[in-house]
# Entry
Amino acid sequence: MWQQIEMMVRAKDCAELEDMLMESGGSSITLQDAEDKPVFQREPGESPLWETSTVIGLFAPEKDLRVLLATLQFHPLVLNRDALRIKLLKEQAWEQNWMDDSEPRQYGRRLWICPSWQSPPEPEAVNVLLDPGMAFGTGSHATTALCLRWLDQANIRNKEVIDYGCGSGILGIAAALLGAYKVHAVDIDPQAITATVDNFSRNGIAQRNIAVYLPEALPKLQADFLLANILARPLHELVDHFATLVKPKGKIVISGILEDQAGPLIETYRHWFSLDKPVTEDGWVVLSGTRRA
# Structure
């Protein structure tokens, strides 16, 4: 049986306690929310934590943790010292459990996101093969779900699409499978570019139908659709650039927006775009609109 120690700490103290657990022979460290308070990434590259976090250290069965446990029970940064205990975890087939719990998800009428190891429940539907748990997004977050539902109802066949901030490529893949003739996928992270290429290939999308770029390499073009599921600040900063990338009467879809961020973004984008009514889910917003002539 594996051994586990959990403790509550302030966000600013997590790193110090993580280091202590690793130096004491920890095999892995996990951070969780200790008070059920959501936290959102608001800036690129930011790694926000909950104000009070649970730090969980996992240790091999043979590791003697008595000295570490005694040290933590008197450590000033540990908030729940009286509750500190060593928990024993049974061996489990974690990967198989994770796979068993992963189910296909439907977005709108036609569009499904399916784990690669499962048969799509509706073979004749538009099925995007994408494995859950990927770092760059698989549709489970509300912002991605909002964009996928918008794509499902859009007339995108034979259109040219830009997926700006492509991550895993999920929106671009959905667009291609829904009939877009060309998808330009853009991201600031080279690893996201690699993930996008791999996922396009997994979904059987021909190379002639896709192109991937870092932002500075994106050529001058005007697409029929631009999708950007990123963050509020870059959405503000990129509005003029996005306007040059969308054809007159072309469509824009932006998300990654909290409800209190929607108003200022509407004001920013209405100069270039005639905007539709915002759509919200779980405190997140998707904005869509048409490029003014």
Q: What stands out?
A: Residues 81 and 277 are 50 Å apart (CA to CA). Residues 136-291 form a domain with the Rossmann fold fold (CATH 3.40.50.150). Residues 36-47 have pLDDT under 50 and may be disordered.
